[in-house]
Amino acid sequence: MGYDPHVPPRQEIPVKPEQFAPTMPAAPIDPAHGIDVRTKFPVARIKRIMQADEDVGKVAQATPTAVAKALELFMIALVSKGAAEAKANRSKRVTAQHLKAGLMKDGTYDFLTDICESIPDEGSKKGRAKSEAKSEDSEDDIAPKKKAKGGKKRKADTSDDSD
């Protein structure tokens, strides 16, 4: 940029973003949002499950692939919502309660409310929380268990004793 006598010193010249890059959409088109998924759902198993239903006739070749991709995108959305809940609660681990909270906040997943009702809330002490509650109540009462030494146990030789 050269010197312009009409621009006062120390004033920036407005620059339009279109000058540098072509117009891009604001949000990425890919629903995975740039998440690299290396594992794929087994298409052959999906096809077998679909054909196990008596009401389903022939299955087109592209159908199990489309179902696998839909399942992959659903899992990305589910885990992302659970991770966001875990971050909001300052937790390092994503639990079933985080997944439940993420699903309950979004009306899109109303069809899962029956399944989510069986998951205990974070406040209740069931499942894994039971062991944590026990350790909180009597942390100093019980001595920690020692790890067993020696590794894998071998079966006793019965051929030596039978002679």
From TrEMBL:
Residue stretches of biased makeup (Basic residues): 145-155
Protein name: Transcription factor CBF/NF-Y/archaeal histone domain-containing protein
A cellular component annotation (GO) from this entry: negative cofactor 2 complex
Keyword annotations from UniProtKB, A to Z: Nucleus
Stretch list, region Disordered: 119-163
Record field: compositional bias (Basic and acidic residues): 122-136
Major place of residence: nucleus
Protein location: Nucleus
Gene3D superfamilies in UniProt: Histone, subunit A
UniProt source species: Exophiala bonariae
CDD domains for this protein: HFD_DRAP1
One function term, GO molecular function aspect: core promoter sequence-specific DNA binding
Domain Transcription factor CBF/NF-Y/archaeal histone: residue ranges: 40-101
Entries under Pfam families matching the protein: CBFD_NFYB_HMF (PF00808)
